[in-house]
Amino acid sequence: MGKIVAGKTADITPGKMIKVSIDGRDILVANINGEYFATDDSCTHSGSSLSEGKLNESTITCGWHAAEFDCKSGKLLKFPAKIRDLTSYNVVIESDNVFVEM
Ligand code: FES
Q1: Is the pTM of this model over 0.85?
Q2: What is the 94 CA–ligand 1 centroid distance (Å)?
Q3: In the chain, what are the domain boundaries?
Q4: For 3-101, which CATH class?
């Protein structure tokens, strides 16, 4: 698919995460201390939109049942049951544009 623009850097300020739809797929893009990261937005437990959850440092907490994922790697950090990691994507910044490589 290549490199898809997800937004402007000014719209994703430090500590913020947004959801963007790229070719019908919901992607979470987060700014952690000036570095940008992207993962699938759908929680691998029951599909909640993770961008509607909480972001603390690099930990995303799902708003439905509190699964925790590492925003940088997509790895599951904490949940009582075994669920899949999130797919993560490389992010590239060019001028003031945030691109997700898919
Ligand atoms: S839907 Fe995310 S923890 Fe249940």
Answers
A1: yes
A2: 34
A3: 3-101
A4: mainly beta
